[in-house]
Amino acid sequence: MAKRMALVTASYDKDFDRCRLLCETLDRYVTGFETHYILVAHRDVALFKQLASPNRIIVDERDLLPRWLWSMPDPKTWGKRQIWVSPFTKPLYGWHVQQLRRIAIAEHVDVDGFLFCDSDVAFLREFSADQLWQGDDIRLLRYDQAMLNPPTPPHRNWSDNAARIMGIKEHGQHDYIANVVSWRRDAVLAMCRHIEEQNGRSWVKVLGQARDYSECILYGQYVDEIEKGRGHFHVDWSICHVYWFGPAPDQAKFDAFMRDMRPDQVAIGLQSFMNMDSSTVKRIVGL
Predict the structure, then answer these.
(1) Which of 87, 94, 252, 270 is most buried (most C-beta within 10 Å)?
(2) How far apart are CA 15 and CA 210, in angstroms?
(3) Neighbour tally for 22: CB within 10 Å
(4) Is the pLDDT assigned to residue 276 strictly greater than 80?
């Protein structure tokens, strides 16, 4: 029996054009899912409504997160950025809250699994979400032993915090971070229950107080250390070829980047912090 899948993207206003490009390429190339959910802050709902369709729903974070967590202009940036505050957490920025939304959607959408795609992803080849399953097991991206030499310092900290939050004695050795990942819904819900049992309060409060975390590492460590990999099969390569660091590539650098793309990769990620507008991405990708 085919598994029921949903696509999920957490985004915000400055990534709107890149998110529009993601939607265009999803509609062109991706099948095997029921609905694409775009999760945004309340103030961004009207903007993102432009992307809504019969199988694409814009979700207000107020429908996902507790009412005691609210956003306000960040006084440290003279209101240029938003900050999320509450009586129970440290001040959180947008990238923290995007991760909370991605976890919280599991409580509201009844499917077997999720494929999470960041806004700065574009699909270039045909892909079905059915390919994420082997029988009853879903694909879990894991870079084995990557924490022995983490790609950036925060990864080690996020891994250590995940172990502490979930009561895992051994520090995590693997990395699970990517801009396209697949999760089981039942495992997400079980992870939230486990965090609450370990810490005696809601998982949102726990993560909001920890502040330094990665939802990908949390999920990966939960699956591997608590569930012992049940319901998953491991791979060490992403279906998305990513240009992570450095200045925005010119055509020559982009061509070299594309030559390194695996034949079984179906999408590319050009990090939004490189400030490449969607028209430039379309031009170099050939869309």
Answers:
(1) 270
(2) 26
(3) 28
(4) no
Give the Cα separation of 134 and 252 in Å (integer): 38
pTM here is 0.94
Write the DSSP assignment of 88-156 as a string of letters: SS--B-HHHHHHHHHHHGGGT---SEEEEE-TTEEE-S-EEGGGGEETTEEEEE-BTTGGGS-SSHHHH
- Residue labelled with tokens 């107020």: 62
Cα angle for residues 224, 163, 102 (degrees, 5° grid): 75
CATH 3.90.550.10 describes domain 5-63+97-238: yes
Q: State the DSSP code for 175.
A: B
Number of helices (H), then strands (E), in the chain: 9, 15
CB 210 within 8 A of CB 169: no
The DSSP secondary-structure symbol of 53 reads B
Residue spans of the domains in the chain: they are 5-63+97-238
Residue 161 contacts residue 212 (beta carbons within 8 Å)? yes
Tell me the three-class secondary structure of 65-89, residue by residue. Answer: CCCCCEEEECHHHCCCCEEEECCCC
Distance of CA 244 to the CA centre of its chain: 15
Per-residue model confidence as pLDDT tens digits over 254-274: 888 888 899 999 999 887 656
Task: Return the axis-axis angle of helices 203-210 and 185-199, rounded to nearest 10°.
Answer: 70
Report the SS3 class of residue 183: strand
The answer to whether residues 125 and 266 touch, using CB atoms and an 8 Å cutoff, is yes
Is there a contact between 48 and 187 (Cβ–Cβ < 8 Å)? no
**Where do we find the tokens 């507008």?**
277
Q: Are 53 and 119 in contact (CB under 8 A)?
A: no
Size of the chain, expressed as the number of residues it contains: 287
**Which range (147-151, 210-214, 235-239, 247-251) has the least confidence?**
247-251
Name the β-bridge partners of 225: none
